[in-house]
Design a protein that fits this description.
about 0% strand, coiled coil, LEKR1, Leucine, glutamate and lysine rich 1, mainly alpha
Amino acid sequence: MDRHTPMHALPEEIQKMLPEDKVCKYCGVSYLILHEFKAMEEKVKAMEKEMKFYQGSVGREKRLQEKIKSLSQDLEQYKIDNKSKTESKIYFRVMCRLEVEHCQLKEQMPNSQHSVSEPYIGL
C-alpha cells in the first residue's frame, strides 16, 4: 500500500485539540487516520477474495491436466481404431476384387483346363 506523506502540517486548531476529541469514542481510532484504515480494510477484503480464488486453482489445474491426459489417450485410441477399421475395409475390398477376378478367369478358361486343385480364395 502506498504511504501518504502530508505536504502541509495539520492546522494549529487540530494540533491543539485534546486526544479525546481526535479519536472515535466507539473504536478508539483517530479520525485523522480513519479513512486510511477503511481503505486498508477494503484492500484486505479484496485480497482475501483473490486468495480464495487462487487456493482452488491448484486443484482445478490438476483436474484439468488429468482430463487433458484422458482425452489425449482417447484420441490416440480412436486413431488406432479408425486405422484398423480402414485397413479391414481395404482388405475386404481387395479380397472381393480377387474373388471376382478369380471367377472371371474361371469362366474364361475352357472347361477342360479346370482341375480339382483350383485355388479358392475365401473371405
